[in-house]
Amino acid sequence: MRGAYDVRLFPKEFQDETYLDWERDYKWNAHREWHAGLNRSAYRSFLREGQFTEIAALVIRIESRTNLLVSFEKMALRDAVKSAAGTPLLSMALEGRRKNLMSVRCHCGASTKANKSPDVAGGESVRKTERHAGCSSQVRSGLPV
């Protein structure tokens, strides 16, 4: 095994056609689509005009055709843009005004299931909550971002 990939699977390594097909091309195409639809000037125009829903729709459309995000990140993204408050926050997060998607989920009130742990004294389930750094709302601990 050389590097991250088995040369038996990809004999030409990063120039191997199978590697390009399975691992690279769809990511590069998503990158190109992102820059075509959401380049700096288009993005600024969307922001200026308050077209946050359009930004979110483009992000979801590009992301849904790839495996760039793992399943819990996909859920977090979709949860974040379900509410009217989520789309502007996602737009700001893309610009770097928010630290991460967890901040977007917290501020827009995305629904999540509580992480429960047994209470030692009574044997009941108790919700564990914590304050997310940089976020004014409480977040249930142990949940994926």
Concise overview:
This protein has helices at residues 17-37, 40-48, 52-64, 71-80, 86-95, 101-108; strands spanning 116-118, 125-127, 129-131, 138-140. With 145 residues, the chain is mainly alpha-helical. It has a domain at 38-111.
Number of helices: 6
What order do the SSEs take from the amino end to the carboxyl end, as H and E? HHHHHHEEEE
Cα separation of the termini? 33 Å
Number of strands: 4
What topology, given as strand order, has the largest sheet? 1-2
Strand content: 5-15%
Q: What is the global morphology?
A: elongated
Q: Averaged pLDDT, please? A: 72
What about the largest sheet? 2 strands, antiparallel
Structural class by SSE content: mainly alpha
Task: Indicate the low-confidence ranges by residue numbers.
Answer: 110-145
- Helix content class: 40-55%
Mind telling me the C-alpha Rg?
20 Å
What's the arrangement of secondary structure elements?
Blueprint: H1 17-37, H2 40-48, H3 52-64, H4 71-80, H5 86-95, H6 101-108, E1 116-118, E2 125-127, E3 129-131, E4 138-140
Antiparallel strand pairs: 1-2, 3-4
3D architecture notes:
The protein is mainly alpha-helical and 145 residues long. It has a domain at 38-111. The protein has 6 helices and 4 strands, in the order H-H-H-H-H-H-E-E-E-E. The protein has helices spanning 17-37, 40-48, 52-64, 71-80, 86-95, 101-108; strands at residues 116-118, 125-127, 129-131, 138-140. A hairpin with a 6-residue loop joins strand 1 (116-118) and strand 2. Helix 1 runs antiparallel to helix 3, helix 3 packs across helix 5 (86-95) and helix 4 (71-80) packs across helix 6. The longest helix has 21 residues, at 17-37. The radius of gyration is 20 Å and the shape is elongated. The chain starts with 16 loop residues before the first helix and ends in a 5-residue tail after the last strand.
